[in-house]
């Protein structure tokens, strides 16, 4: 919620976020084109549907990277309310380490999937594996960021991590 | 058995505080690695495929439209308009709270977002007028659950994708139940207002109503575009989302001039983050649901439940019970993605309409947002209002009575949900 006089903070953004920004507005333009050509020109552009789906995949996984960095992914803070501080720290450390390992493993699996995929996209002449490579890159980034949380926590540099937001 | 391990892992991780999306994908990964008959690449393949869906495109654009509305100062205008309409009643601001939520529900599809955006304004206004904070939180929490019942609705989009049901029909089906929720909550407010002698806001004045209506007119067109467009079959849900975003962009940039470049950047990233958080859960749940279906867990579960009874009324009661309990512990989107593949075969078997069931499911899970331990709306409102979480819980409790009453009505009178969609779609 932003009020008229409230300054807009962009402090949480990083230069590398411009990639997902471009993907998102690319998606918006493609979907708008689809909408416009169907309604106004009565003849929807064939490639828009397929490309829009791929861009949605890209935005989801690239956006999830920001979610890991900002600890925005929805989690249940049930146990954390009742555990003592020290125990909480150990649980959080374990979660960060396990998350990092899982993300890196997913990156590996996605890379194998990409190498196996020889098809081209249906509507344009681009290999479908491009989408998978992007997801792979996103998993690598998530792994690195989870590892960074682990490292920071180990050195006790996290003044209570920001609380997770929620949707639904 | 491996399946037991899958569930123990999932719930164990969730309780420990692992993000829901990762808990779903992670427990599935362990299952697949141990099972030794499914190639491990399936995990990421299913995750990616889970998001590879055209109807899901409605998700980012409904989120974008809602965020743009909030920046454009539209929320305030709608609140003022609702105040001029019904503020003169006893306990006026309580009624305004419900009324504004209904209007806002016509442009936003997420309860928690409604609570955070509109809720902030509502709670502040009620506090300034001398209402006790706990009552304000209770009304705000309860009325925010109308958001995903009245179209548009993110949970309904996810349900539609998982159940292969028409999202347009689901949206139409939520319209009347959403209004029923509003009426029932207003009755509750009226009862409180009468007993506690709550104040009235400024007396009714046609000129004030006219003035606030003119000020809010262009904003009020947003729900008209979305709800009207969908109800009259002009737009598909995705198109309605795009149209609403374009319109909100136009309002903010050209008409109200509240949308600066900085704000557009902020809105873009808020939208990206929310979209990613929602769809990442969908991705994680896709592989989990795939395991449940392919290892025939859903069949066994159906056999057990249908063994108890094949009477639709009994089945619906059991479903309500199950969904309420799940709603206590589980986040909405994750609950829908996991439960639809499990419950849908049973529903179809006893002849319940999947669109009707969609409304029932989302309504149950909305009630879950208002109950501890995982009441997301309560966490947000506790933060916004400064009222301690435990107080928020007890203040919201009485408002569950009207909501559960509506739930029972909607469950046992299918026409409440199905009348509109059958009228519109053929």
Description:
The complex is a heterodimer of chains A (168) and B (426). Chain A has 4 helices and no strands. Residues 159-168 of chain A have low confidence and may be disordered. By secondary structure, chain A is mainly α. The radius of gyration of chain A is 20 Å and the shape is globular. With 426 residues, chain B is an all-alpha fold. Chain B has 21 helices and no strands. The interface between A and B is large, with 66 and 82 residues.
Mean pLDDT of chain B: 89
Distance between the termini of chain B: 48 Å
Envelope shape of chain B: globular
End-to-end span of chain A in angstroms? 17 Å
Q: Largest interface by residue count? A: A-B, 66 and 82 residues
Helix content percent band of chain A:
55-70%
Task: Report the major sheet of chain B.
Answer: none
Cα-atom radius of gyration of chain B: 21 Å
Q: Profile the largest sheet of chain A.
A: none
The radius of gyration over CA of chain A amounts to 20 Å
Mean pLDDT of chain A: 84
Strand elements of chain A, count: 0
Q: Low-confidence parts of chain A, pLDDT < 50 over ≥5 residues? A: 159-168
Order of H and E elements of chain A: HHHH
Query: How many helices of chain A?
Result: 4
The parts of chain B where pLDDT drops under 50 for at least 5 residues are none
The count of β-strands of chain B is 0
Helix-and-strand structural type of chain B: mainly alpha
The number of helical segments of chain B is: 21
Strand content of chain A: under 5%
Instruction: Give me the secondary-structure category of chain A.
Output: mainly alpha
């Amino acid at each position: 919620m932003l009020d008229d006089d409230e300054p807009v903070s962009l402090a949480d953004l990083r230069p590398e976020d411009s990639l997902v920004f471009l993907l998102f507005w690319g998606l918006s333009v493609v979907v708008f084109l689809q909408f416009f050509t169907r309604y106004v020109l009565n003849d929807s552009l064939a490639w828009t549907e397929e490309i829009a789906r791929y861009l949605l995949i890209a935005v989801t996984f690239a956006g999830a990277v920001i979610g890991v960095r900002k600890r925005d992914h929805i989690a249940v803070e049930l146990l954390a309310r009742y555990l003592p501080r020290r125990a909480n720290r150990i649980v959080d450390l374990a979660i960060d380490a396990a998350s990092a390992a899982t993300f890196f493993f997913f990156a590996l699996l996605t890379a194998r999937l990409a190498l196996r995929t020889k098809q081209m996209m249906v509507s344009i002449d681009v290999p479908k594996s491009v989408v998978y490579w992007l997801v792979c890159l996103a998993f690598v980034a998530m792994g690195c960021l989870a590892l960074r949380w682990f490292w920071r926590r180990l050195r006790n540099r996290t003044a209570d991590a920001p609380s997770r937001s929620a949707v639904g | 058995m491996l399946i037991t391990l899958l569930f123990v892992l999932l719930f164990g991780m969730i309780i420990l505080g692992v993000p829901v999306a990762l808990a779903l994908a992670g427990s599935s990964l362990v299952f697949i690695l141990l099972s030794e008959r499914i190639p491990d690449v399936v995990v990421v393949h299913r995750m990616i495929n889970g998001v590879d869906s055209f109807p899901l495109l409605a998700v980012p654009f409904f989120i974008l439209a809602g965020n743009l509305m909030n920046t454009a100062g539209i929320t305030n205008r709608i609140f003022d308009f609702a105040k001029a309409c019904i503020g003169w009643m006893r306990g006026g601001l309580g009624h305004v709270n419900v009324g504004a939520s209904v209007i806002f529900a016509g442009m936003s599809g997420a309860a928690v977002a409604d609570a955070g955006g509109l809720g902030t304004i509502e709670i502040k206004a009620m506090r300034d007028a001398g209402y006790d904070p706990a009552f304000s939180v209770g009304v705000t929490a309860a009325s925010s659950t109308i958001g995903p019942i009245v179209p548009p609705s993110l949970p309904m989009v996810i349900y539609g994708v998982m159940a292969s049901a028409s999202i347009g029909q689901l949206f139409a089906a939520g319209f009347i139940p959403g209004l029923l929720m509003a009426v029932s909550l207003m009755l509750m407010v009226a009862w409180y207002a009468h007993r506690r002698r709550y104040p009235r806001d400024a007396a009714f004045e046609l000129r004030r109503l006219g003035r606030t209506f003119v000020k809010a007119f262009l904003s009020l067109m947003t729900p008209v575009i979305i709800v009207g467009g969908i109800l009259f079959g002009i737009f598909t849900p995705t198109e309605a989302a795009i149209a609403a975003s374009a319109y909100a962009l136009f309002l903010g940039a050209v008409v109200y001039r509240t949308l600066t470049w900085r704000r557009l950047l902020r809105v873009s990233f808020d939208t990206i983050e929310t979209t990613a958080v929602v769809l990442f859960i969908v991705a994680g749940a896709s592989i989990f649901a795939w395991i449940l279906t392919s290892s025939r867990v859903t069949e066994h579960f159906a056999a057990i439940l249908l063994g108890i009874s094949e009477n639709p009324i009994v089945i619906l009661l059991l479903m309500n019970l199950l969904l309420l309990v799940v709603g206590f512990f589980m986040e909405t989107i994750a609950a829908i993605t996991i439960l639809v593949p499990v419950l849908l075969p049973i529903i179809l078997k006893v002849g319940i309409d999947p669109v009707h069931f969609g409304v029932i499911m989302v309504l149950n899970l909305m009630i879950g947002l208002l109950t501890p331990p995982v009441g997301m709306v309560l966490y947000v409102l506790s933060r916004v209002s400064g009222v301690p979480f435990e107080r928020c819980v007890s203040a919201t409790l009485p408002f569950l009575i009207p909501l559960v009453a509506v739930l029972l009505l909607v469950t046992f009178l299918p026409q409440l949900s199905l009348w509109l969609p059958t009228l519109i779609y053929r």
